[in-house]
Amino acid sequence: MLSRVLFQDTTVSSMTRSTAKQPKVLLLETARRSASTISILVKAEFEVISVQDPNEAWATLDARDDVDVLLADISSPTGGVELGRYVHDRWPELGVVLTSEQVRHLRPDEVPGNGCFLPHPIPADTLLDEIRMAARRH
Asked: Which residues of the chain have pLDDT under 50?
């Protein structure tokens, strides 16, 4: 049983319906956390493409040109930092948001491109705002 809240689901103005196009997010997270993240993103009307490993993420990005933001967990075996670097090298216009439950801080030069890093727990409004900002840089 989880004893900690991984995302704080708060209702704020950033979660209200908007007529603007919402970002399409490629989500690479561990299965135990992805359901919570997907719920937050779907409530905010984002389209979510969930993948389980870096190879699946890469294949998805290779096959689609409509992804706006990569949201990846760096502390899981999925290897989010390395994937973020490879993705930024191949698709520099793609927004990158990295998260971690274990890592508390990354230096700016460790985050690919103009991406950002968010340690868990992440308030829902912060997560949504960062994804929107990353998508605008797209």
From this structure: 1-19
Please, what are the domains in the chain?
21-137 (3.40.50.2300)
CA distance 42 to 26: 13
Q: What is the DSSP letter of 98?
A: E
Edge-first strand listing for the sheet containing 69-73: 47-51, 24-28, 69-73, 95-100, 116-119
H-type helices in 2-123, by residue range?
31-43, 54-63, 80-90
Q: What are phi and psi of 75, to 5 degrees?
A: -95, -5
pTM over 0.85: no
